[in-house]
Amino acid sequence: MLKKEAPYKFSLWMLAWPIFIEQFLQFLLGAVDTLMVSHLSDDAVAVVGFSNQLFNALTTLFVTVASGAGILIAQKIGSAKEEEARTVGIIGLKVTALIGLILSVVLVAFPGPIAQILQLPDELLSLGETYISIVGGGMILTALIAVLSTEIRSTGNTKAPMLIAVGMNLIHIGLNYCFIFGKLGFPQVGLAGVGVSTVTSRTLACIVLFIIFLNAFCRKINFKDLRLFDRKLFKEIMDIGWPLGVNSASWFFSQLVIFSFLAMLGAKELAARTYMNTLESFCFLLGFSVALALQIQVAHLFGGGRTKEAYKASYKALAIGLPLVTLNALILVFCGRSLLGLFTDDPVILNIAESLLWLNMLLQPGKMLNMALGNSLNAVGDARYTMTVSLIVMWIVAVCGSYLLGVSAAWGITAIYSCMIADEYTRGVFSFVRWRARKRLRIKEQELEREAKQQSWTGGGGGGKPAGAVFSAE
């Protein structure tokens, strides 16, 4: 029975398409959010875009645990250690929830000072304080959604998070409509209503995800099992997770700093970048879905000792992802002006955003290279390498370059965007060279050879493939 089910769960396509639907709905949520908020004002859009960069940066504090737990779960399932995978899931949930709770308290208590420290323009401070306190107060919900979705996907079930994303998006869009426009008897409360809508939809999503999580592993999780804690497994989670967390934090905080540079240029540049973020998301949705599915697949294959298939899987994913993101970016070049017109009619903002569309054609293939090969390196436990490269390249090329060329030299948003492109390709080349070297894969192969020799000496043998070998990589 296992041999029939597992290829379905762990093939790249069957992992990727539900992830794409989920990510597309998240993109749709962001686009509709931006579209609806744009009916309030361009200032409100700038606040949402700025605040979301802050929230994304802070999520890295719990993504450290969630990502490490997700990769380790896939590895444990690949090596047929189902009970350990179950325990890893419980540990990841508890630690992530604690981090999310701490962040919620901080954001509710200090929204104004946080906005000021991050250089939000004075005219946006009042709106920013309101939005940060409401949505930031729900960071524990964001943490729970992140860890539960990641762990459920890592078991091979990518459909459940997708279906929950459908429901969450529908509820959020419906409540946005009611709060922004005062429909169906709801008060018309503007940007504060968007925050309430966000928290409400995420609360409902958390409840359903938690119910699915309880049944996601080989043995149902009972509430008394939530007390489980294994120091050895937690150390394994953190060995994988902390470099991932630093890597993610490096990217998100660098983006936050870059957004503060844009805020120095002016509110219109900040709004233009927010609108471009929305359009750019469309370009790499399929590519990102393939890369995320690839991470699960490579971790699973690696855990099962199928190193050659894991190595080849990355190039197959690149062969799919690169054409997809390039085609999507090309479509955006020709349709971008019309799409931007849905969000704003300010000619200055439109001209700024439109000027970035061709640069986006260069940006997206670099992002795909990073996503595929970086995720592959992380999946086999080489996350410290990607972390080191990110810390050095990202802050020198993207951040320092953006300030020197975009702000200090006064070349503006085009220079900042160009530095972001240079950063993506530089890190992509480093990841490509590292993956070609097969360092972690060779170490795994040597370990398997030693285990095989020990079994032959002790008469254990078995002569079969590793436990994970029943799963398909196609």
TrEMBL record:
Pfam hit, one: MatE
Record has Ribonucleoprotein as a keyword: no
Protein name: Transporter YisQ
Region (Disordered): 450-474
InterPro entries: MATE_fam, MdtK-like, YsiQ
Topology with respect to the bilayer: Multi-pass membrane protein
Keyword set includes Transport: yes
Subcellular location: Cell membrane
Recorded superkingdom: Bacteria
Native organism: Paenibacillus physcomitrellae
Classification via PANTHER family: MULTIDRUG AND TOXIN EFFLUX PROTEIN MATE FAMILY, NA+ DRIVEN MULTIDRUG EFFLUX PUMP
The entry's keywords: Cell membrane, Membrane, Transmembrane, Transmembrane helix, Transport
Residue stretches spanning the membrane: 12-32, 52-74, 95-118, 130-148, 160-182, 202-219, 240-264, 284-305, 317-342, 385-405
Major localization class: membrane
Gene name in the database record: yisQ
